[in-house]
Amino acid sequence: MNREILRELVMNYGEFLDKEDYSEDAVKGLFTEDAEAEFAVGGTGIGVSAIAKGHQKMMESFDSALYNITNIVFDEEEDTYAKIRFHMEVLHEFKPEIAAHTPGNLFIVNDKIYMETRKEEIGWKIAKLQMKTVYKRMMSTEENLCIG
C-alpha cells in the first residue's frame, strides 16, 4: 500500500516541476517543514522557503522543461519512513537571451534523485531530496530532430 502512495509522491514531484509553480505553498504540499534539498546546480536549501527559492534559481535560465521519471527503486521502507531513488531525464529549453550565448538552445540532463520521505499526519512528504547529475549535454533543436 505504501509503495503506491510513495510512487504517487514521486510523480507529484514531477508534476510540481512541470507546473513551474515553485511557490512556498506548492513546496508545502510536497515537502516537510524541515526538509532539505541538495540541487544539481549546486546549493542546499533547508526549509520550505529555501527549497522554493532553490527550485526557482534552478529554473531561471529556462523557458520550459520536459521531465521523464523512470526506475523508481525503494531502498528502505518502514511504516513512517522510506528511502527512494529514481532517474529523471530533463530536456530544458534555454530562454532566448541565454541561448544566444550557449552552443545550443537545449540542455539535456539526467539526474539520479535520492529521496527520503516521512509519513506525517496529513500523509507522506519529502524530508530530503538529493540531485546527482549523471549526464548533461547542450544541443540545438535541429540536432535533436529525428528523421526516419
Walk me through what this model shows:
With 148 residues, this protein is α+β, with helices and mostly antiparallel strands. Helix content is 29%, strand content 49%. It is built from 5 helices and 6 strands, in the order ααββαββαββα. The chain has a 6-stranded mixed sheet with strand order 2-1-6-5-4-3. The longest helix is centred in the first third of the chain and has 18 residues, at 2-19.
Query: What is the helix fraction of residues, given as a range?
Result: 25-40%
Strand order of the largest sheet: 2-1-6-5-4-3
SSE-based structural type: alpha+beta
Question: Roughly how many Å is the radius of gyration?
Answer: 16 Å
Q: Which stretches are low in confidence, meaning pLDDT under 50 for 5 or more residues running? A: none
Order of helices and strands: HHEEHEEHEEH
Shape: globular
Separation, N- and C-terminal Cα atoms: 43 Å
Largest sheet: 6 strands, mixed
Q: What is the β-strand count? A: 6
Tell me, rounded to a whole number, the average pLDDT.
90
**Total helical elements:** 5
Strand content: over 45%
